[in-house]
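tokens incoming
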């Protein structure tokens, strides 16, 4: 087994969007689980969730055209990866096309909202009504793609 060096870490979660905030929340025992109004409107038995406020998420460094392809999960993973790269202090020249540099990313799953929207569009307008943007937004592997 080979050794690895972890030079940076990034996180986007319901308790924070950076490592320091999340670490502090965990140490303080703060939860990001809150009442979810839309769950109540849909009469879900459980009306709590760990939602992420996208208004607080810094996406300023992401190209607008690229962002169109992102589901929520892939956006969070991308922001996390950017934060990890920034924290590492490694120059982009060292990272790009370097087989010795990698990013480990994970997610709880694909964006359910995007899947529901794609199915609704297909039911209303047929297959052509779904649109090409639905594919990358609904892929379970969008985080690693």
């Amino acid at each position: 087994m080979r050794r690895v060096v972890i030079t940076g870490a990034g996180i986007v979660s319901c308790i924070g969007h950076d490592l320091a905030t999340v670490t502090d929340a965990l140490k303080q025992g703060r939860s990001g689980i809150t009442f979810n109004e839309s769950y109540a409107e849909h009469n879900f038995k459980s009306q709590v969730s760990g939602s992420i406020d996208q208004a607080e998420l810094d996406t300023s460094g992401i190209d607008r055209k690229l962002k169109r392809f992102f589901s929520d999960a892939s956006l969070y993973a991308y922001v996390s990866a950017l934060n990890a790269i920034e924290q590492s202090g490694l120059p982009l020249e060292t990272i790009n096309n370097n087989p010795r540099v990698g990013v480990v990313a994970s997610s709880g799953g694909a964006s359910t909202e995007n899947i529901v929207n794609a199915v609704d569009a297909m039911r209303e307008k047929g297959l052509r009504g779904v649109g090409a943007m639905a594919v990358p937004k609904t892929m379970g592997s969008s985080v690693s793609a």
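note: The first strand starts at residue 34 and ends at 35.
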